[in-house]
Design a protein that fits this description.
This protein is mostly helical. It has a domain of 63 residues: lambda repressor-like DNA-binding domains (434 Repressor (Amino-terminal Domain), Orthogonal Bundle). It contains 5 helices and no strands. It starts with 23 loop residues before the first helix and ends in an 8-residue tail after the last helix.
Length: 117
Amino acid sequence: MQAHTKKHPTETVELRFIGPIVNIARAIESLKPLGFVDTSDSVPWREAYPEFSEAQLIGKALAGARYREGLTQMKLAELTGIPQRHISEMENGKRPIGKEMAKRLGKTLNISYKVFL
């Protein structure tokens, strides 16, 4: 009997091109009918808010993910086993989020834990 393997964590793929610059527009246009989107003019979310520190950005991401799932800090604390006080401190950039904590939060909030690192 075959064992069930882990599903790849994403349903999307990012492509990069190496080739003549004159053909890039044609390459992009040929991939659009297949569902690909040109994101070459987008800005990474961390660079969009230079006035915030890294810890503050991670805290905002946590608060946003919690809000998206419709959870209060208390409910998130219950679901993750993390004290509500710690969640508040993480959201305010006063407490770092370690890898294990990020994994617990990511699983509960249906988001990649890497957002919190």
